Amino acid sequence: MLYMSVQSPVGSLVLHEEDGAITRLTWGDAPAEDDSSLLREARAQLAAYFEGDLTRFDLPLRVMGSEFQRAVCDAMSAIPYGETLTYGEIAKLTGNSAQAVGNACGGNPIPIIIPCHRVLGAGGKLVGFSGAGGVETKVQLLRLEGAAGLLI
């Protein structure tokens, strides 16, 4: 596995690459600083996203998880920049319960790039975010995107 640290407005991030795909994005410091064209491209896309110049990531991703986890990640990836869906709406798309979707969102291994921050609770309530800073980070990402109209 290859790692690269990325400084961002939501803290220090670590990109994880394995076999030519991004497999994780975590908060903290990388255990090693590796270099690859994919890690450099992912870092550049994250920088463009945080500058407001990128609305859709174009990176090879590999979600390690169940078929359901991958389906939920696919559904989240399809949510356009600046828009949101609820857990219930994704549940209808995937044929599962909102609670199961919530658990899958919480297990998203590549947050920000797979935009779990665009998923809200029933009635558009701000609930949960698995990244560092929790809901405050979610709000920061949604504000960056001008999403949800509910943000002050």
UniProtKB/TrEMBL annotation:
Involved in the cellular defense against the biological effects of O6-methylguanine (O6-MeG) and O4-methylthymine (O4-MeT) in DNA. Repairs the methylated nucleobase in DNA by stoichiometrically transferring the methyl group to a cysteine residue in the enzyme. This is a suicide reaction: the enzyme is irreversibly inactivated. It is found in: Cytoplasm. Residues 1-62 form the Methylguanine DNA methyltransferase ribonuclease-like domain. GO terms for biological process: methylation. One of its GO terms (molecular function) is methylated-DNA-[protein]-cysteine S-methyltransferase activity. Its EC number is 2.1.1.63. It catalyses: a 4-O-methyl-thymidine in DNA + L-cysteinyl-[protein] = a thymidine in DNA + S-methyl-L-cysteinyl-[protein]; a 6-O-methyl-2'-deoxyguanosine in DNA + L-cysteinyl-[protein] = S-methyl-L-cysteinyl-[protein] + a 2'-deoxyguanosine in DNA. The keyword DNA damage applies. The active site is at residue 116. Keywords: Cytoplasm, DNA damage, DNA repair, Methyltransferase, Transferase. It comes from Aliiroseovarius salicola. This enzyme catalyzes only one turnover and therefore is not strictly catalytic. According to one definition, an enzyme is a biocatalyst that acts repeatedly and over many reaction cycles. CDD domains: ATase (cd06445). InterPro entries: MethylDNA_cys_MeTrfase_AS, MethylDNA_cys_MeTrfase_DNA-bd, MethylDNA_cys_MeTrfase_DNAb, MethylG_MeTrfase_N, MGMT, MGMT_N_sf, WH-like_DNA-bd_sf. Belongs to the MGMT family. This is Methylated-DNA--protein-cysteine methyltransferase. PROSITE patterns: MGMT. Residues 67-147 form the Methylated-DNA-[protein]-cysteine S-methyltransferase DNA binding domain. NCBIfam families: ogt.
